[in-house]
Amino acid sequence: MPVFEVKTSHCSYPNAIERGVSGRVRDYLPQRHGKIFVLTTDDVWRLHGEVIQNQFQPGDFEVLRFEGGENNKRMASLERLAEEMSEKGADRTSVVVGFGGGIVTDMGGFLAAIFMRGLPVLQIPTTLLAQVDAATGGKTGVNLRSGKNLIGSFHQPLAVLIDPDLLSTLPEREYRAGLFEILKCGIIRDPDVFWEFSRRKDDILAKKPELVDTLVAAAVRVKVDVVSADEKEGDLRRILNYGHTIGHAIEAETEYTRLLHGEAIAWGMMAATELSFLTGLLGEEDRNEIERTIRSYGPIPSIADLTPESLIGRLAKDKKTLGGKVHFVLATGIGAVRIVSGVDTSQVKQAILNTLR
Ligand SMILES: NC(=O)c1ccc[n+]([C@@H]2O[C@H](COP(=O)([O-])OP(=O)(O)OC[C@H]3O[C@@H](n4cnc5c(N)ncnc54)[C@H](O)[C@@H]3O)[C@@H](O)[C@H]2O)c1
Ligand SMILES: [Zn+2]
C-alpha cells in the first residue's frame, strides 16, 4: 500500500492509503492511550460504524455524534461536544478519531487541538474530498457567521487512514465534487493525473477500483509533498489554492448552499485557467484541454446569474488576500503553475465573463 509521510518542522506522520485500512486503527494509536472518542455523523456511523466498533471493546471508545453540515461547523457545536467528552470521561490520555467527511475531520481536529490544550487526533476521512484534501495538512477549524474557517488552528494528526472502500456509499454528486480536487492536483503538479482525467472519464466515473486508488494516492502525494515542504501557507502551499480564489467567492455569493465545494472549485478552476490564458501564461491548446476536461465531469450547477462585479467584490475579502493584493495561482502549462500578484482587474473580469457565458 502507498504510505506517504508528512514531515513538518516538529512532527511526522503517515498517510496510509489502502482498502480496509480503516479496520486497523489500533496500529496507528499511541502505545499507551486512554479512551477513544470517535467524532462522526449519523449517516457515516450507520453505513460504516461497524468497521470501528469491531476493533474495540465497548468501554474503550465513545461515539460523539454530530449533525454535520456547514451550519453546524461552529463553536457552539464544538463546546457541546467538548462537554460531552468531559462527561464521558475524557482526560489527557484520550484520543479523538475524526470519522467522516471534511466537516467532521475539520471539527474533530479542532476539538482535539483545544480539548485540555491538545489531544492527539487520528483522521479517517470518508468522502473523496476529505481523503485527498481536508484530512491531510493539519488545518482544522470552524466557521463564523462572518466567514468560513475563520477560527481554527494547525493540529497535525497521528495518522490519516485513507480507505477507498468507504467511498462505495458516497452519493454520486459528492464523488464528482471530490474528483475536481484530484483534477486540480493534475493541473498544478501531476500531468499524468490530468491525462487520466482527460482520457478515462468513464472508468473514473464508474469508480474502477485500481484507478480510484491510483488517483487518490497521486492526489494525497501532491498534498503531502506540498504540506511537508511548506506547512503554513507560504508560496508553495498556495498552489493548492488553484481555482480557490474565485471558487471561494462563488461559494460565498451562492451562500454555501447551491454548490458543493468541489463544484465551486470547478468553476473557479475554469476561470483561473481562462485568466492564465488571458495573461499570456497558458497556451490556447492547454487552456481548451483543461476547460474541456473540467466540464466533462459535470453537470456543475449553473452560476449564470452571478456577475463578475459581485465576485470581484468578494475577492478583496478573501482571507488569503495579502496587503490588499489578490494573489492568483495561474497555470503555465498542464502540471505547472505560478503565483501571480497584481493581476489587472479588467482581465479578471473578462476571465469570469468568458467562463460564465
Ligand atoms: N482542513 C482542510 O485543509 C480542508 C480542505 C478542504 C476542505 N475542508 C473542509 O471540508 C468540508 C467539506 O468536506 P466534505 O466535502 O467532505 O463534506 P461533508 O463533510 O459535509 O460530507 C459530505 C456529505 O457526505 C456524507 N458522507 C461522508 N462520508 C460518506 C460516505 N462514505 N458515504 C455516504 N455519505 C457520506 C456526510 O455526512 C455529508 O452529508 C468543508 O467544511 C471544508 O471547509 C477542509
Ligand atoms: Zn478545496
Protein model, in words:
- The chain has helices at residues 42-53, 75-87, 102-114, 128-134, 172-188, 191-199, 201-205, 209-229, 235-238, 244-253, 261-278, 284-296, 308-315, 345-356; strands at 3-7, 12-17, 36-41, 61-66, 95-100, 121-125, 139-144, 147-154, 159-162, 327-333, 336-341.
- The chain is an alpha/beta fold.
- The strands form three sheets. A seven-stranded mixed sheet has the order 1-2-9-6-5-3-4, with helices on both faces. Strands 7-8 form a two-stranded antiparallel ribbon. A two-stranded antiparallel ribbon has the order 10-11.
- Strand 5, helix 3 and strand 6 form a beta-alpha-beta unit.
- Helix 4 (128-134) runs parallel beside helix 8, helix 11 (261-278) packs antiparallel against helix 12 and helix 11 crosses helix 14.
- It is globular, with a radius of gyration of 20 Å.
- It binds nicotinamide-adenine-dinucleotide (NAD) and zinc ion.
- Nicotinamide-adenine-dinucleotide is lined by residues 41, 43-44, 47, 68, 70, 73, 100-104, 106, 126-127, 129-130, 133-134, 137, 139, 148-149, 166, 169-170, 174, 261.
- Residues 133, 181, 244, 261, 265 line the site of zinc ion (ZN).
Low-confidence stretches: none
Into which percent range does the helicity of residues fall? 40-55%
Give the count of helical stretches. Answer: 14
Strand numbers in spatial order across the main sheet:
1-2-9-6-5-3-4
Radius of gyration over all CA atoms, rounded = 20 Å
